[in-house]
Amino acid sequence: MMPVRLRYAAVPATALALLAGCATGTPESREALHLQKGREYRDKKDFRKAVVEFKVASQNKPKDPEPLYELGMTYLRAGSAKQALETFQDVAKLDPKHSATQFELALFKVGSNKPAIVAEARAALRLHLKDHPDDAEAMGSLALAEAKLGNRDEALRLIFASVAKNPANLRPAGVLIGLFTAKGDLDTAKSISRKLAEMLPNSADAATLRAQVSLASKDVPDADAQLNHALELKRDFRPALQLQLRREIMKNDPANAEQTTAALAKLPEERVWAAYARLLLAEKKQNEAVSEYQRIVKEHPDSRALHDEYSAVLMSIGRNREAEAATSETLAKNPKDTAALIQRATIRVDLGDTEGASKDINTLRGLKALSPQLSYQQSRIFAARGESVKQGDALAEALRFNPRYITARLELARLLVSSGKPKNALDILAETTPEERKTPEFGFYHNMALMASGKWDEARSGVNAALAATPTSGFYYQDALLRLRDNDTTRARKALETGFQASPTDPGILRLLGDVMARQGESAKYAAMLTDAAARTPGNAALQLALGRALAALGDRTRATNAFEAARAAGDRSGADTGLALLDVQSGALDQARHRLLNATLTNDNVSARMMLAEIEARRGTPEAGVAHYLKAIELEPGNTTAMNNLAGILAENPLRMDDALFWAQKALSQEPSNPVVEDTLGWILYKQGKYEAALPYLDRSLRQMERPVAHYHLAAALLRNGDPSRARREYEAGLKKDPKSPARAVVESLFANAK
C-alpha cells in the first residue's frame, strides 16, 4: 500500500488554488473556515482531507504560520514524521518566535546524536518549561537531552518529575533507560526502573519496565517477580505477555508458551498475533516457527498482513514452494493484494518461473502499484532471460523510485562490471551514503569494480580490510582472485576452501575452486567435496549444478544427470538444460544437445546455452554458425571474457578473419589482464600473423601462470621462431609427455620433425 505521505504530496497546487478560489469572503474568513474543517477532519482521523484543508487555509493567508503549524501536527498524527519536520521548519522560517513550533522542533532535535543540536533542543525546552512548568512531555524530553549531554543527575530529577506529573506516560522514562543501557550504564538504568516501580506500585507499565531491565542485567528472579506482578495487575497487558513469552522460550517451557500465545491472540492488536512465531524464528527454530505461523493463519484467515508475513518468512528460510502456495492462497481471496503479488513474483523468479513472475509484474503495473521493489524484480526476470540491457534499465528505474535502494544500486554496479564498464560501476557506487559504504555488500562490489578497472592495489587494500572486519565467502573469493593474479595458487586454494566451508553454495567460490583443483589434478576430490556439501544442503541449485559439471568432467554420467535434474527441481531450468546438453555432447549426441539448447533459448535465451551451442557447431564442422552464437552471447552479456576468447579462437582458424580474431582477443584481455587462457589465445593469434616477437611474452606468461600441454606446444613454436631452439625443444617434449594426442601437437609438429 502506498504510504500516506505520498498521497499528500500528490495533491496538485493548481487544485488547491481552485479550491481556494471557490470560497467567498475575506482571506481571514476563508482561512478560519478551512482551519476549522481541517481540525474536524483530523479529529475524525481523515488525515488526507485535513491536509488539503490546512494547505488551502495557508494559501489564503500565506504569511500566517498557524495553518502550516496545524499541517505539521496533522502529519505527526498521521505518522509522517519527515513531512511534519519539514513543515515545522517552514513555520520557523515564517515566524522564528512561534513557540509551539519551536517546541515541536526541539522534540525532533532531542533525537539527534550531535551534541550541538541536542544543546539547541535543551535551550528551547528550558524556555518552554518556563511558560509551561507542568508539561510532563517537555520534562521527559529535557531529561533525555540532559542525559545525552552528560548531566546524569539533572536527567534523573527531570524524569521523575515528569512521571509525577503524568504517571500514565512512562515512554520518556523507557527511552531514558534505553539510552543508559546502550551506554553500558546498567546501574543507572536499574535505579531508574526500580524507583519508578516504587513510585507506581499499581502500574503494570512500571513493573514490566523494571522486569525488562532486570532481565537485561541478568537479575532473573527480580525479572520474573516483576513480570508476575504486572500480569496480576493487568492480565491482558501486551508488553508483559510478550516478555513472559520470551521468558518461557528461554526456559524451554512450550506448554506455558502456548498459553501465553493464546492470550496474545485474543488481543485486538493484529501485530502481536505472530509474537510466538517470531520468537521461535529468532531462536532459529524454523520448523516450529512455521508450524506456529500455520496455526495462527488458520485462526485468522482474513488477516492479509499475517498471511503476507507468513509467506515472507517462508521465503527468508528458503522454503519457496510453500511460500508460493501461501501467496497464491492469499491472492485467491484478495487478487489485488500488492504485497502478496510482489512476494509471489519474487518467489517465481527464484524458482525460475519467469513467465509466471511476469504475469504478476504486469498485474501490479495494471494496479499502478509502482515501486522500487517491482522494478527490481522485473530486472531479475530480464537477468534470468539474459537481457542485460533491459535488466540495467529496470535497475535504473528502481533507483529513480528510491535512490537509496542499495540492493538495486549494487546489482547495477555488478552488471556494469560484467558488461565491461567498471568505471561506470565505480561512479554508481560513489553515489552511496557513508553508512552504505560500511556494509559488506558494498565492499564486495566495490572491490570487483576496482579489480575490473585494473586498480589492483586499491582492491587488495579493500579485500584485506573486509577480511579483517567480516570474513565472508565473497571476500575469500576476491582474495583468491588476487592471489591467482600473483601466481600464488596454494594460498588462493586455501582462501577458496575457507570460503567454501563458510558458504558451500556460493557460485563464485564453486567455479573458481573447481578450476584451481582441476589445474592441480584433484577433480575427483573436488567432486567428493561437492557431494558431501549437497547432502548437507539439499535443494540448492548452484551446488547441484556445480556437482553435475564436476561429475560430468569425471565421466560419471548417471550421477551427473541426477545432479542436473536436482538443479531443475530447485528452480534453475536453464542451468539444468545446459548441463544435460553437456552430457549429450560428451556422449556424441550433438544433434540432441543442439535441439535441447535451441528449445531452451526460445523461452530463456541465455549466455550458457549460446556458448555451448557455439562449441557444438564447432564440433559439427560449422564454425561460422558458432560465431553467431558467440556474438549473441556477447550481446546478452557484453563483458563475457570467455565468449570473447572463444570467438577469437574460432575466427583465427580463418586466415581472412585474423584481424577480427585479434580484436576480440585483445578485448578479452582488457577485461581480464592476467587470464592465462586469453594470453595464450592472443599470443597464438600474433604467432599465426607472423608477429613472433610480439607473441612470445604472452605465451611465456600464459604457461607460467597455468601449466597445460597446449601452452607448451604454442610456446615451443614461438621460441623456435625467435631463435631459441634449445628451449623450444624442451617445451615441445614437455607437451609430448603431458599429452601426445593434443591437437596443438599436430599444428606445430612439422617444426620439430627431428625431435627425439
What can you tell me about this protein's structure?
The protein is mostly helical and 756 residues long. It is 76% helix and 0% strand. The chain has 45 helices and no strands. The radius of gyration is 34 Å and the shape is elongated.
Instruction: Tally the beta strands.
Output: 0
Low-confidence stretches: 1-23
What percentage of the residues does DSSP assign to strands (E)?
Answer: under 5%
Please report the number of helical segments. Answer: 45
The average pLDDT value, as a whole number, equals 86
Please tell me what the overall shape is.
elongated
Using only CA atoms, what is the Rg? 34 Å
Largest sheet, in brief, is: none
> Which structural class best describes the helix and strand composition?
mainly alpha
SSE topology:
Layout: H1 4-9, H2 13-22, H3 27-43, H4 47-60, H5 65-78, H6 81-94, H7 99-109, H8 115-131, H9 136-148, H10 152-165, H11 171-182, H12 186-199, H13 204-216, H14 220-233, H15 238-250, H16 254-265, H17 275-282, H18 286-299, H19 304-316, H20 320-333, H21 338-350, H22 354-366, H23 372-384, H24 388-401, H25 406-418, H26 422-429, H27 440-452, H28 456-469, H29 473-485, H30 489-502, H31 507-519, H32 523-536, H33 541-553, H34 557-569, H35 573-586, H36 590-603, H37 607-619, H38 623-636, H39 641-651, H40 658-671, H41 676-688, H42 692-705, H43 709-721, H44 725-738, H45 743-748
